[in-house]
Design brief:
Radius of gyration: 15 Å
Strand content: 35-45%
């Protein structure tokens, strides 16, 4: 796929690294697909906080689309909520941020280091996300300042329906 149609927390951590040869090949072959193994080479997140299973679309420096397969085996469903499991909204937003991290980590002009959430704005949750759903996570880079601050627009969908959306702001930690 080479084109596309179309509150505060501190949970995202992204280390800017040069693009790997494997990822460059994925970008240049027109497939623009990153496997979970390739994602783990780019992002520092690991179980139980690695929330992106695959990147299905990527435009360097602009946009990324990822997939999160929601399963009942995830630890948060034990308590959120017994008898009626719903994915916590903060984890949906974190999954969007991790897809955004794919964009940051492969931009040569971005300083290397740890990016964290600085703020969220206009975040809305539109429908519950439950086990068995597949989240399609789209992030689009809106702006970068001084290589240390960035703003992205995120959209999470299930079966073509909006599940969550909002603006995500990031800052490079010293």
């Amino acid at each position: 796929m080479s084109t596309f149609e179309e509150t505060t927390t501190n949970s995202i951590a992204t280390t800017a690294k040069p693009q790997t040869q494997e990822n460059q090949e994925a970008t240049t072959t027109g497939t623009n697909i990153l496997t979970v193994e390739e994602i783990h080479k780019i992002l520092p997140h690991r179980y139980p906080f690695a929330l992106v299973d695959r990147i299905i679309g990527y435009v360097p420096g602009e946009k990324a689309v990822g997939i999160k397969n929601v399963t009942f085996n995830e630890p948060h469903f034990q308590g959120h909520f017994p008898g009626r499991p719903i994915m916590p909204g903060v984890l949906i937003i974190e999954a969007l941020a991790q897809v955004g991290g794919i964009i940051f980590a492969q931009m040569p002009e971005i300083q290397s280091g740890l990016f964290v959430f600085a703020a969220m704005d206009k975040v809305k949750f539109r429908r519950p996300v439950v086990p068995g759903d597949q989240l399609v996570l789209t992030t689009e880079l809106l702006s970068i300042r001084k290589g240390r601050f960035a703003k992205m627009r995120g959209l999470a969908e299930v079966d073509g329906q909006k599940a969550a959306e909002g603006d995500l702001m990031f800052s490079l930690m010293d």
